[in-house]
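Quick start: read one record
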Amino acid sequence: MAFLKQHEVQAEPWRNLAARAATPRGVAKQRVAIVTVCDYDPTQTPLARLSKLNRDAYAKMHGYDVVMYEKAPLFADPLAELLTEPLAHRPPAWSKVDALLETLAQGRHDWVMWLDCDSFFMDPEVRLEEVVALAESRCPAAPGDDAAGLRELVAKWQAGPEKDPLYFGMSRPELGPRNVEVHSEELKFEPENAVRALVLAMAEPVSRSGAISTHANVSNELRPLLSDTRFECVGTSG
C-alpha cells in the first residue's frame, strides 16, 4: 500500500499539495452535486445526522446540491435483466454506484462527487471547482479526444442487449458466429463477461450488416483476455 501511495504522488504530484493552494485560482462556478448514502440505524449511531449537517453547511456556502440517501438506492438500467439474482442481494458497497447513476441520469450537474458517509469537509473555504482546476492544470489532457468513444460506450450500455441477453448486444443472433462464438449453453451475467462484452461492443463495425472486427479497435494485448471457454474471438479479413 505504501508503494502504491508513493506511485500516486509521483504520477500526480498535485495530490501532495495543500488543499488551500487551490483557493486563489478564481475558477468559474459550476453545477456540483455531492452524493452520499448513509444507510445506518439512527438509534445506534448519529453518523447520518452529523454527516448531513456537514454537507449541508458546505453546500450552502458554495451553492452545491446535496443528494443524500438514507436507504441504499437501486438503479435499474436496461442491463438489469441480465442479473441472475435480485439487486437487493448485492453487497451494500454497490449502492455507491447506484447513487451516482441516479444523479448522473438527471443530467443537471457538471460534476458529481461521491463522499462516504463517514467522510467530512474539514476545510470549507476550498471549493470543489478549484480542486478540479488544480488537478487539471497539473495533469493536462492527452492530445487525443476520447469523448466520442465514451459517449458511444454509454449509448450502448443504456440501449441494453439486443433481443437475446446471451449476446449482450455484441451481435445480432441472425448474424451467426462469424466473429463472436459463444461456447457455453448459457452465458451468466458476471463482471468478467460484462467487461469482455463491452470491449467487443466497442469494436468498429466493418460492414452495414453489423459484423464486428476484433482487430479494428481491440489491441493485441487484450485479445488473450477476451478468449476463454465462453468467448472465442474469430478474426475477420478486411
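Residues 165-189, 204-238 have pLDDT under 50 and may be disordered.
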